[in-house]
Write a structure and sequence with these properties.
Helix content: 10-25%
Oligomer: single chain
Radius of gyration: 18 Å
CATH architecture: 4-Layer Sandwich
Number of domains: 1
CATH superfamily: Clavaminate synthase-like
Shape: globular
Number of helices: 7
Bound molecules: succinic acid
CATH class: Alpha Beta
């Protein structure tokens, strides 16, 4: 299996395979490539929802997907869909985040399969949290060891956000009070498969910090972290083609779906693999 690197930091493309027929050792190789490159694009796939579920389950059990009504026939599949008529409505995934990081065991991988892609726009941006960690100063690396992130979906999916999500006619996103639940995760975690050290931060769901008393200092640090972790030097921007199957590692990346294709349809199918409780560094 040959992986072609897409940047000097993260991202690789894999051509000429069919994920439906991989044997166990090929699957292990693909998984290792996803961990190594943090986001991989397997080109030229044509999966039914059931085939995507079967592939995804080979990476691990499905993660719970709160707030988003799944496909009625395939409860493990989320249709990421913006219809042409939805215009400038807020798009699903349209803020920097790591999938469902507010869960006690946030997803390891997300698998996203492109079915209908606008003629331009709708790219997905990724940022490597491994590289963002590596670029910290020695002092920051030491200071961050004792911090924990307060992960919550309250500013994404609590009832006050319902109107923001209701502009998508093809997705049913149901905000509720459970979005106020909070999970504490280490700021700096060890990737369970690569052993790399990673900054586990994303602005959408890390809404406070435990370990710094002064509120203003916490706010300033979060603002700095957002700018630092989404800096272009840690990034890869994926231009989609129909048939792409992207597999990204939520333990070592953040991502952001751009919303620059008003008037065009975009449909992708998403499955999410449950991860483990983050291991502190
Ligand atoms: C997501 O955040 O899962 C959606 C990403 C995308 O639509 O590109």
């Amino acid at each position: 299996m040959e992986a072609t690197r897409l940047t000097g930091v993260l991202g690789a493309r894999i051509d000429g395979i069919d994920v439906r027929v991989l044997d166990d050792s090929e699957l292990a190789e693909l998984r290792a490539l996803a961990c190594e490159h943090e986001v991989i694009c397997v080109t030229g796939q044509s999966l039914t929802p059931l085939e995507q579920v079967e592939f995804s389950r080979r990476l691990g059990p499905a993660a719970e997907s709160p707030f988003i009504e799944p496909s009625p026939d395939h409860p493990e599949v989320i249709k990421v869909l913006k219809e042409a008529r939805d215009g400038n409505a807020f798009n699903f995934g349209g803020a920097w985040h790591s999938d469902f990081s507010f869960q006690p065991n946030p997803p390891s991988f997300t698998v996203l399969h492109a079915l209908d892609i606008p003629p331009y726009g709708g790219d997905t941006c990724f940022s490597s949290m491994t590289r963002a960690y590596d670029a910290l100063s020695l002092q920051q690396k030491e200071d961050f060891l004792s911090l924990r992130g307060v992960h919550t979906a309250r500013d994404a999916y609590s009832p006050k956000m319902q109107a923001v999500h209701s502009g998508l006619s093809g997705m049913n996103i149901v905000c509720d009070e459970s979005a106020h639940d909070v999970t504490l995760h280490p700021f700096v975690r060890v990737h369970p498969e690569t052993g790399r050290t990673v900054l586990f931060y994303n602005r959408a769901y890390v809404r406070d910090i435990v370990g710094i008393e002064d509120e203003q200092a916490r706010k300033s640090l979060m603002e700095w972290l957002h700018l630092h972790t989404t800096d272009a030097r840690f990034g890869y921007r994926h231009r989609w083609s129909r048939g792409d199957l992207l597999i990204w590692d939520n333990r070592s990346t953040q991502h952001y779906a751009l919303n620059d294709y008003a008037g065009f349809r975009r449909e992708l199918h998403r499955t999410t693999v449950a991860g483990e409780i983050p291991i502190p560094a």
